[in-house]
Amino acid sequence: MKIILKDIPDLQKLDIYESNGGYSTLKKALKDMSPDDIINEVKASNLRGRGGACFPTGLKWTFMPKVTEKPKYLCCNGDESEPGSFKDREIFEKNPHQFIEGTLLSCYAMGIKTAYVYIRGEYYKWINLLQKAIDDAYKKGYIGKNILGTNFSTDIYIHRGAGAYICGEESALMNSIEGKRGYPRVKPPFPATYGLWGNPTTINNIETLANIPEIIKNGHEWFLKIGEPKHPGTLLFGVSGHINKPGVYELETGTPLMTIINDYCGGMIDGKEIKMVIPGGSSMPPLTKEEALTIKMDDASLKAIGSAIGTAGVIVMNEDTDIVKVLERISQFYYHESCGQCTPCREGTGWLMRILKRINNGEGRIEDLDLLTDVSQNIEGNTICALGDAAAWPVKWTVKKFRDEFEKKIKKESVSLPVKNKVHSLR
Amino acid sequence: MNNNENNIILFSNDELKNIEDIKSHYPDSKSALLPVLWIVQEKYGWISEDSMKCVGDLLDIPYEHILGVVTFYTMFNSKPIGKVHLQICTNVSCMIKGGRELFKYVSDKLGVKNKETTSDGMFTIEEVECLGSCESAPMMQVNNKEFYENLTKEKIDKLLEELHKKNI
After folding, report:
1. Which of B65, B132, B137 sits opposite A85 (nearest CB)?
2. Which numeric CATH code is attached to A323-426?
3. Model confidence, pTM
4. What is the model's pLDDT at position B168?
5. What is the CATH architecture of B2-72?
């Protein structure tokens, strides 16, 4: 079942999209449906956000004030900076008009006249591809003033980021659009009350919005039958690592991980064994081989074993992988990307990275493992945004699940090496 | 009216027109800061203090704010760099497919370390975070634009030669 990345050649072209029913849902909705009809349909479909948090999209939309004198805004989040995620660029490349149609339907539903598509600065090629699609849609009267002869008007603008992971966080994203540093904001107030320039704002992921036209066209009952009922629909699994055919695969939620790896990704390179799998981008707690063998890829199944679906960016690592080095690299990333506002995150990410570096350099101590857990627990939940959690989870869970890997490394090399530093003096 | 003169030096008339169009996308012209900084960097390769001041005059933003923004976003260069900026990803998906070895290979070949520029001013190399191209690891981006994917040492050798020829 494919909802977004359909097997239709050249679907990125406007005429091909139109001849396959494209923009007919928008036409029909503007004629026959009220904004509330659309919100109710999305709510009933139980569509959940594809950006990582799985928040129900329809419910999020209801937070927007119906009557207000202020302008309302939609931000389409294409920052896609979570290591292991590369799905939204596939939408910009293969089916941009479905995303645009979804954005327009969402704007109509919430009474929004301006939408900004925030795309990470590195996606130069994909920014141009989407801009071309937007220009074509403007020319045909799908975007702009009095869309399709109705009194519904909406503009869509692309805003190019400039290399900051944190701008994928919704309030940092808004600050970035406002021409500021990408600092997350304290919530409440939430974006629906105080968002872009202090106005009601909704932020949705690109993949979430690309689902909307099909849900409106086929109805919520159709959508609810796809995949897991509690997390219905498909996911764009971006699979990378030690597999034969890495790539983006659109599959129903609840697809077993091993089906993805063996049936779609051509199995492990050289038939090696799995050691660890990151299920949804680098901030998600990793899975052991035993967990990977039986896990189904949906929100509830992963939560049940202490992980999460995240952005469905799956990184598969084989038996030869040095887990401690991988974790050090992950920690280096969060240290680099911490915006620096909150002390636990700004300082804690550095501590994590330095302790892991010390272990990899053969200067680790066995107490470091508890220290890593302790530091991550003191970051988690104590910061403005979820970057702190994102930095803490992989450390806490990797140490817990792969403790012997760390112990082996410490014991093997620590015999002749005195402990040189306390954490404090490392700074 | 010194400020306006500066802006004319910094931007062509077409660019000024383009900036006016960008400003119209936002209710507040300060929001045009990132797009305008992109225009500066694509034209000059980096964003100097003088450029920041001119942009500040143009958009009515204090220089200090712009400095804060330029130094916050890693893709903005607040120092001059080489003609060809090689940005090699070493994050997890690339790392486990040889991204770090690739970086070391390029670094040794060009004789420069991370964020350094070759003495002829041609290449600047930088180890960067995930660029969202994990399926084609290891990979690198050149000059904030093109992605070069599924890299090998042979491909790098050929690519560096081509880039050198093209930019000499």
Report:
1. B132
2. 1.20.1440.230
3. 0.95
4. 86
5. Orthogonal Bundle (1.10)
